[in-house]
Amino acid sequence: MFDYFSGVRALIRHLHMFERLCNCCGIGDYHLALNYRPTLIALYILRTLFVLLIGFPVALWGAVNSILPFQLTHHLSRLIAKGEDQYDTTRILLGMLLFGLFWSLQCAYVYYHFGSGWMLAYLASLLISTPVALRMRSEYRYALGNLRVFFLFLRKQQLKEYLLLRRVEIETELARLVRIARRLSHAQTL
């Protein structure tokens, strides 16, 4: 019994050390599972180029046309919300109000100067491009993180091997503790 609890404490300690090391290097578990083969790298480059060539112009249009309500929503939500638990609700409600107001004014301007056909096309472009702009923000951070880890593993090839070895050791120890826990549980039921 003592061996089991000391094993659990040791496993938790090893897990925390492994997690700190991965967090310090910006490495996610999926980075360790990736096998950086030339075909995978080529597919990633093609995907990134597609996102840049197609997604970026659409996202830029959405960002330019929605920057004011987005920034106002972001800053006013922090001021209005009474705590972190209310921030998301405040942001959603305020965003619906501000985006609706700004888009209505923008559409009215386009309608007044160019007519209803252009106004409908403009509104459709806003409804498509604004979510793309939000997605591109997270895509940008994700791509930068992946590139940083890729080059880190290129420079320090032993780091990936070391982390994989540590992960296997943790998984092995966890499996051993699960077997012990099952035996203890089975012994108590008898």
Q: Which features would summarize this protein structure in a list?
A:
93% helix, mainly alpha
What proportion of the residues form beta strands (DSSP E)? under 5%
- Give the H and E element order: HHHHHH
Distance between the termini: 17 Å
Tell how many strands the DSSP assignment holds: 0
Alpha carbon gyration radius: 26 Å
Class computed from helices, strands and strand pairing: mainly alpha
Please give the count of helices. 6
Summed over residues and divided by their number, the pLDDT gives a mean of 87
Helical residue percent band: over 70%
* Structural shape: elongated
Number of domains: 2
For the sheet with most strands, the description reads: none
Which stretches are low in confidence, meaning pLDDT under 50 for 5 or more residues running?
Answer: none
Describe this structure in words.
The longest helix has 43 residues, at 38-80. It contains six helices and no strands. The chain has two domains: 1-33 and 165-190; 37-155, no CATH class. Helix content is 93%, strand content 0%. The model has no long low-confidence stretch (mean pLDDT 87). It is mainly α and 190 residues long. The relative contact order is 0.13.
